[in-house]
Design a protein that fits this description.
CATH topology: L-arginine/glycine Amidinotransferase, Chain A
Strand content: 25-35%
CATH architecture: 5-stranded Propeller
Distance between the termini: 5 Å
Order of helices and strands: EEHEHEEHEEEHEHEEHEEEHEE
Structural class: alpha/beta
Number of strands: 16
Radius of gyration: 16 Å
Shape: globular
Number of domains: 1
Number of helices: 7
Length: 249
């Protein structure tokens, strides 16, 4: 039986559908070879070119089949092709900060991490309706910056996110900034390189072994009974994350 992932970013079972940048060709090919359906997030001209197709910029999953999208094109894909119930944010131009990260909040179980100055009104309303615990951080690109490992464990290169997460009881691996490829920028973020394919598998765009803290990453994941899985070769790439949508129950 297939169902939408109940708690965003934290599937309990093997996933059967994910959302990924339409430009992440190697990652898409690897996922489809694993018989995972891929929602290809289209390029949206409202965003800066390097991140114009990034899933973590264009949408925010709120649980089950619901979420918020940056435009009607992606909303139609979620609703018509995947049976989702997605609304569209009222923001129209995402070319500059802080509007570009209006949906870039990181949901981890009952907690949601975000810069309160960045979150759009639709997401604020959803947070309130869901009764989530809001954890304020300075980093606007919160989801990009956070790799969700378990409901109480994350990896990030942002010291502010790390401190906030530890304050609410999370186990955190603080990484060195950089060492993630994102064309057009000096570097990308760890959260944009990965996403969970099941409760115990965290898939990466690129090889974790090429990160200077690879040993620490593997040790941290093992501590939480999670395995790293590389979907393609080369250094870690920020592709806007791999968002789990539907799982086998």
């Amino acid at each position: 039986m297939r169902q939408w992932v109940e708690s965003p970013n934290l599937p309990k079972h093997p996933v059967t559908a994910v959302a990924v940048s339409s430009q992440a060709h190697d990652v898409i090919a690897a996922l489809e070879q694993m018989k995972i359906r891929v929602l290809r997030v289209p390029i949206a001209k409202q965003f800066a070119e390097p991140v114009a197709s990034h899933a973590d910029m264009q949408c925010h999953l709120t649980g089950h089949n619901r979420g918020i999208c940056a435009n009607t094109q992606l909303q139609d894909i979620f609703c018509k092709q995947y049976g989702g119930d997605f609304c569209r944010t009222s923001i129209g131009d995402f070319l500059s900060y802080p509007k570009d990260c209006s949906l870039n909040a990181a949901r981890v179980g009952p907690f949601i991490f975000a810069n309160p100055k960045c979150v759009c009104s639709e997401l604020k309303n959803s947070i309130h309706q869901l009764g989530l615990t809001f954890v304020p951080v300075h980093q606007g690109y919160t989801k990009c910056s956070m790799a969700v490992v378990k409901k109480n464990a994350i990896m990030t290169a942002d010291a502010g996110i790390a401190a906030a997460a530890r304050k609410v009881g999370f186990d955190v691996l603080l990484l060195q900034p950089g060492h993630v490829v994102l064309s057009g920028y000096s570097y990308g973020f760890i959260g944009g390189t990965c996403g969970k394919l099941s409760s115990d598998v965290l898939a990466f765009a690129g090889s974790v072994k090429m990160h200077p803290q690879a040993a620490e990453i593997f040790k941290f994941l093992k501590k939480h009974n999670v395995k790293a899985f590389s979907l393609c070769e080369g250094p870690l790439q920020d592709i806007g994350g791999i968002l789990p949508l539907i799982e086998n129950k």
